[in-house]
Amino acid sequence: MSGSTKGEKYGSLIIRNATLVNGRGTPASGPTDIVIEGDRITEVVSVSPGAASRSGFKRPEGDVEIDAAGMYVLPGFVDMHVHVPFRESQCGPEAPEYAYKLFLAHGVTTIRTCGFGTDEKLVEHRRLSEENGLAAPRIVVMGSTGEITTPDEGREAVHRLHKLGTDGIKMIPRSNVTAEILAAMGEEVRELDMKAGIAVHIPQSSELDAVTASEAVPDYLSLEHTYGIPQAAIPGSQSLPPDYNYSDEVDRFRLSGHVWTEADRYPDNVLWALDTMIENGTVWDPTMAVYEINREYQLPSRWRWLDRYAAPGLLRGWEPNPASHATYHFNWRTADEVAWKQKYRIWMKYLKVFADRGGVVTAGTDCGFMYTLYGFGLVRELELLQEAGFHPIGVVKIATTNATASMGLKDLAGGVQKGFTADIAIVDGNPLDNFKVMYGTGVKMYSEDRTSVVQGGGVRWTIKGGALYDCRTLLNEVEEYVSELKG
Ligand SMILES: [Zn+2]
Q1: Is residue 3 in a domain?
Q2: Spatial distance between the Cα atoms of 145 and 441, rounded to a whole number of angstroms
Q3: Within this chain, do residues 46 and 125 fall inside the same structural domain, yes or no?
Q4: Measured in angstroms, how far is the CA atom of residue 370 from the centroid of ligand 1?
Q5: To 5 degrees, how large is the angle CA 278–CA 189–CA 464?
Q6: 180 C-alpha to ligand 1 centroid (Å)
Q7: Is the pLDDT of residue 151 over 70?
Q8: Are 365 and 471 in a shared domain?
Q9: Is pLDDT above 70 for 347?
Q10: What's the pTM?
Q11: Of 291, 364, 303, 367, whose CA–CA distance to 329 is shortest?
């Protein structure tokens, strides 16, 4: 059974002999048979010797079978911070389809898009994806507001986007956006029941911080990246040098490398900020993968998968360039990398503290920037969450049911369980042992007799709403597309 790159639907589909990680934070179990009818999981049955020997035990039947012996079945993954590419100069004439295929090929069945003025197209793609008319993950559209200067303008922007059909709002509150404006928008979002809420990226130039934003929008806010938390903890402003210029991205990102180190001198303040977020139900979506280049420039720019799967326009766009955004790696120094390494240690420490005290963490990437490639980037984020101290079982929960629950997607929030929507990743290998098995490029491993090295791993199939995708074929199509773009 192979599925296709279009998403094949069957009367009933059965996954046999799988080891199941259901995404709710409980341990793996198996072997298990999972039955999917229409878009639902209708049975999850243990077929372990103990269960099978009980009287009256009957193995479930299905029209079409997948033998997943030796494989792991997990809920479909969610990338919470995505900008779908639409520009031909970036990813060629089929830019969005290219990115969607890379997501599906990595078991990503839902993406939350974070603005940039493509809301109408994305609402249309969301509909096509729901109807299985487009090979794409589910799309949760966070609309962009444009500039807002008063609470009334904020309310109007929310209404406009709600009418357009977006699921939530993405905001980068400029310096003129006050807590009052944000609160007005939060009220509208609540009234209109936009369950995906407001995702804020609080720039360092904003007067808002994690605490004021969290208080302004209880229950409907997710905080993107890491901005706003150290700012809330540091009394007054960060100790910036006198010639610092926020508009210069080298300055901005260089000094951003020191902000957590400075905040860590006020640990009680950091805990106060985190606890305020927890009390207000603010979700933290750290997107560690995209900033990793700051701690080791040579590393992400040499990821092995870029040669085969990165569109040439992306690679060109990531080259150091003072005229574009997030391409500030010129004059990037050893000291900058050392500072960012320290920043990651502290950032990760408090991310884990936030979760340990009851905060909800999700996994997002901001892929498309700084060598973070669609699909691959999310696997890297899983690795970084493990580095932050989360157990792999917890990492899977963060990247699946934490995300779906936080966006009010109730039919997905149970993970791989009877009665829930069938969004599933079937992985050739054990991601709890090694997340690297999920990369489309797979992993090198011992042959069975341990005398040579063989290529293994990869997400084998992705199921979205009961539709089956063959991940290897998806990757082959992407590879061909990229080589055509290269001419
Ligand atoms: Zn972004």
Answers
A1: no
A2: 38
A3: no
A4: 11
A5: 80
A6: 24
A7: yes
A8: no
A9: yes
A10: 0.97
A11: 291
